[in-house]
Structures are given as structure tokens and as C-alpha cells.
Amino acid sequence: xxxxxxxxxxxxxxxxxxxxxxxxxxxxxxxxxxxxxxxxxxxxxxxxxxxxxxxxxxxxxxxxxxxxxxxxxxxxxxxxxxxxxxxxxxxxxxxxxxxxxxxxxxxxxxxxxxxxxxxxxxxxxxxxxxxxxxxxxxxxxxxxxxxxxxxxxxxxxxxxxxxxxxxxxxxxxxxxxxx
Length: 179
Description:
Elements: E1 3-9, H1 10-14, H2 18-25, H3 29-47, E2 50-55, E3 65-69, E4 72-76, H4 83-94, E5 99-104, H5 108-116, E6 120-122, H6 124-149, H7 158-178
Parallel strand pairs: 1-2, 1-5, 2-4, 5-6
Antiparallel strand pairs: 3-4
Helix pairs in contact: 2-3, 3-6
């Protein structure tokens, strides 16, 4: 199976996801970036994929850097380089027989170029839905794990417990009839 790599156009997501748009409107771009990174980190860990988030240098001039935050690779492009051009170049390099690259952006021209290079494309809305679905699965797993926590030390399986409960209630019912 191919390794999955998601490349995210960071400011594109910030301009499209409801909670990130709200932070942007409050002029809190740093918090919007941090929340995007945190949400993508949870998604990456749960889905066992690799996520890179690319931000244009236009909003953070003078910075050209790449670093890992919360196990997500965060890239600020060189000044004068757009996230789109960085993503296009990276897709050309990374999309191989061993790696399947998916790009999340709502820029239609960018989606077309990415598709031509063999990568999968997702709109900001579709990627948001995918993250929400993953988060719902995580919540459900946590609920199930929490529920099983009370019976974790129990040596019997669920089927055996159901049978024991059935026997207990059937014996309890017959004991009441004898009185």
C-alpha cells in the first residue's frame, strides 16, 4: 500500500473553515494557524498518514522555514514564493509509486495542475468534512474504550458476559417464583 501524504494550503483552509475564519476575522491569524496545525496533527495520528501544511510567506515576510510542530511538517515559503508554486514543485517530486500525494486547496487552477501531475485533490470543504468524520470516529472510539474500561479487567468475553447475565436473570426469575 502506498504511503499517504497530504499537502495542505494553509491560508486556503484558514479562509474556508468556519472556526478558522472566525479567528481570522478577529485578526488572530496565529491562533488560526495553531488550530489548523492541531486539527491536522490529530487527523494525521489517527489516520496514520503524513501531513504537510504550507503557508505563503506573504503573511510572514522574511521567513523561509520548515519545522515539525505536533508531528506535522509546517512550511513557510520563501519570500516571493507562493504556497501554490511550492505545492506544485513538491507534488512533482513526491508523487511516486510509493507515495500517494493528496492536496487540499480550493484554488481551482491549482487543483487542475495538481490533478495533471497525478496527485489527488480535495477542496477545503471536502478536507474539512474528512477531518470532522475522522474526529467523530476518534470520539466514538474513545467512548467505546471508556465504556470497556469498567470491564477491562474482566476475564470473560462479551458473549460470555451476555450468557452469564442471561443465566443470572433466568435464575433470579425462578427464585422469585419459588417464594
